[in-house]
Amino acid sequence: xxxxxxxxxxxxxxxxxxxxxxxxxxxxxxxxxxxxxxxxxxxxxxxxxxxxxxxxxxxxxxxxxxxxxxxxxxxxxxxxxxxxxxxxxxxxxxxxxxxxxxxxxxxxxxxxxxxxxxxxxxxxxxxxxxxxxxxxxxxxxxxxxxxxxxxxxxxxxxxxxxxxxxxxxxxxxxxxxxxxxxxxxxxxxxxxxxxxxxxxxxxxxxxxxxxxxxxxxxxxxxxxxxxxxxxxx
Length: 233
Description:
The protein is α/β, with parallel strands linked by helices. The protein has a single domain (5-228), classed as Spore Coat Polysaccharide Biosynthesis Protein SpsA, Chain A (Alpha-Beta Complex). The chain contains seven helices and 13 strands. It has a seven-stranded mixed beta sheet with strand order 5-4-1-6-11-8-12. Strands 2-3 form a two-stranded antiparallel ribbon. A two-stranded antiparallel ribbon has the order 7-13. The longest helix is centred in the first third of the chain and has 11 residues, at 36-46. The protein is globular, with a radius of gyration of 16 Å. The chain starts with a strand and ends in a 5-residue tail after the last helix.
C-alpha cells in the first residue's frame, strides 16, 4: 500500500530571497509561471498522494488564499498554522493527531523529482523509522551531509566543514508516526534534534536519487532553478 499523506513545510520567512519575500512567501515565488509549491504538488499527485498538510506562518493568508482547499490543484489541503516559527520539526508535533500512518515530509522551498514508490520500497525493506532522499552536490558544506554504510545513514552532519560524503539531505523524508513522540513541544529541528537520535538507533536510512533537485533558498540558486528546472517527469 502506498503513502497517502504529505506534510509540506512552508512557514519560513525566506530572508535570503529578499526583496521578493517582503511581499510574497517562498511557497508562492514564481517558477516558470507557477507558484513553487504547485510543482511539489505535481510530484505528490503523480504518486497519487492528495492528502496534504501545509504548515504556514509568515504571510500565511497569501498561501491560503492562493491554494484554498487544494481542489483546483488536485489536492485536499489542510493548513497547520504556526503562531511563532517552529522550525522543521515543531509543526509536525502540532499535527500529531493527523499523522497516524507512514507519511512524507518535504521542505516547501525546493523543486525535486523523486521516485517516491522506490523510496517507499527501500523504507519498508529496511523497517526504517525515517528515510531521507539524498542527492549529490559538488559542495556539500552548505547542507546536511550523510555518512553511509550501505543504505543506512550512520551519521548525519548539518553543514559540516569536513563533509563525510557528497550525499546531502534533499529536504524530503518518509517518516513513521512514532517519530513524532521524539519531537519536543515548541521550536525544534528535524535535522539537528531528531535525525541524529534515529541514526544512533540504526533506524535512519538514505535513498540516493538521480532526479532533478533545486534548492531555491537564495537568489543565486533560485535563478538557476528558473533556467534549468524541467518539471516533474
